[in-house]
């Protein structure tokens, strides 16, 4: 269907008798492009310079991204641990291909020919996503666009975090300045020579894609004076112009959600849902995620006296972001149900399906077990039942994320007026000139 629309746009552009109709046809093409998936627009950039200019317009990129976010035409981007080379590979498939009635069918999985150098579990792993972009952490910080094969390595500076793996870090979008930002929170101990108790501080580093630089902002507040070392950890979740971190798993501090507003660059708190008490259980994880524009909390626990079997699994959804009393429980499994579905670890909600009556879940236990092709499940809300998704050819799933395709070009928007792209081109030109002089 999208190819037919594209051919119609081609005919409108190429067979225009005069300049006025050409201008009109570009406006029509712009409107048609707005309804096409991002993967089609990536191909259409090569048709002609006029189309490329239209697709690369900053206003059009923002409008198309918002259109993709509001619709359900996104893809699931998967990073897999395969049995043979390449050790990690990227795949995608359409969410519409999954049907609860027949999950044993062969799912059309498309390999993404995008394998950045140095991609391995010990060197690089996705930690945060925003509007189709993926933040990857390892020895360095990088932003990927799997659709356009763009890869941007963040420059190091005085404010660059030294150990990205040990920090709370996230990628988000600032609507007020039309800028993508990376936020890293680094907790460290401030040792006092003449004090019995050390102090703690959580420094906040912010990277701006538009300025291509790092800077320090206000420190993350200490929310619990009795346990000052307990702060935000792990990947940040982007929603409503802010990054969110969960502070759930402390056996001492109170459960809370820390919010960093990217526009004002200030912190605030968000009340957590009424999670179950931890008495008698070994809590393994409580995670944040976004489901159809709503914040969700996954809560699972393992009990010692049950031989490390899953005690319960709950999913809470914040229906109204501004109202903390609007937490509702989407899923609730007890020990018997978890055992019947062979659930041994956490489940992470990925996306809604079929008019929000089904939920796609990732089973983290499949990382350690090889009994299934893929760690995906579909939960039917109406029947309160669940089925596993089998994708032939895929082995242990490391990472699954539901993201929209985006035509945003990282290097063209990095630095003032794309100065990173100009510096890169200038460096290549100088190196070519040196090579020609030597020959």
TrEMBL record:
It holds the Pfam family FBA_1. CDD domains: F-box_AtFBW1-like. Residues 419-439 are annotated as: Disordered. It comes from the Eukaryota. Residues 419-432 have a biased composition (Basic residues). Residues 24-64 form the F-box domain. PANTHER family: BNACNNG10540D PROTEIN, F-BOX PROTEIN CPR30-LIKE. This is F-box domain-containing protein. It comes from Castilleja foliolosa. The lineage of its organism: Eukaryota, Viridiplantae, Streptophyta, Embryophyta, Tracheophyta.
């Amino acid at each position: 269907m999208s190819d037919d629309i594209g051919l119609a746009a081609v005919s409108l552009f190429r067979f225009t008798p005069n300049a006025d109709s050409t201008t009109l046809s570009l406006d029509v093409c712009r409107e048609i492009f707005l309804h096409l998936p991002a993967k089609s627009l990536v191909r259409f950039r090569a048709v002609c310079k006029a189309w490329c200019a239209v697709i690369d317009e900053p206003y059009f990129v923002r409008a198309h991204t918002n259109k993709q976010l509001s619709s359900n035409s996104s893809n699931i981007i998967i990073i897999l641990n395969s049995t043979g080379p390449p050790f990690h590979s990227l795949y995608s498939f359409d969410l519409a291909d999954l049907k609860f009635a027949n999950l044993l069918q062969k799912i059309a999985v498309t390999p993404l020919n995008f394998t950045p150098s140095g991609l391995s579990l010990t060197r690089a792993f996705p930690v945060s996503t925003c509007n189709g972009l993926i933040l990857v952490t390892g020895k360095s910080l990088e932003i990927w666009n799997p659709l356009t094969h763009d890869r941007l390595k963040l420059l190091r500076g005085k404010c660059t975090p030294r150990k990205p793996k040990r920090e709370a870090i996230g990628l988000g979008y600032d609507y007020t300045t039309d800028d993508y930002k990376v936020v890293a929170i680094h907790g460290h101990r401030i040792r006092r020579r003449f004090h019995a108790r050390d102090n703690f501080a959580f420094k906040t580093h912010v990277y701006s894609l538009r300025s291509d630089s790092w800077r320090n902002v206000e420190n993350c507040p200490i929310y619990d004076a009795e346990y000052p070392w307990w702060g935000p950890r792990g990947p940040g979740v982007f929603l409503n112009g802010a990054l969110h971190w969960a502070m759930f798993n402390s056996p001492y501090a109170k459960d809370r959600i820390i919010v960093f507003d990217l526009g004002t660059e200030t912190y605030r708190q968000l009340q957590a849902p009424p999670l179950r008490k931890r008495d008698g259980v070994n809590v393994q994880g409580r995670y944040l995620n976004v489901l159809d524009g709503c914040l969700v909390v996954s809560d699972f626990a393992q009990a010692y006296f049950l031989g490390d079997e899953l005690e319960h699994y709950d999913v809470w959804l914040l229906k109204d972001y501004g109202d903390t009393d609007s937490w509702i429980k989407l899923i609730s499994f007890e020990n018997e149900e978890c055992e019947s579905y062979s659930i041994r670890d956490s489940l992470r909600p990925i996306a809604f399906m079929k008019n929000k009556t089904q939920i796609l879940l990732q089973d983290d236990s499949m990382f350690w077990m090889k009994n299934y092709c893929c760690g995906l499940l579909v939960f039917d809300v109406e029947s309160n039942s669940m089925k596993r998704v089998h994708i032939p050819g895929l082995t242990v799933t490391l990472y699954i994320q539901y993201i929209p395709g985006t035509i945003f070009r990282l290097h063209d928007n990095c630095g003032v007026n794309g100065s990173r792209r100009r510096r890169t081109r200038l460096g290549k030109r100088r190196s070519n000139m040196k090579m020609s002089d030597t020959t």
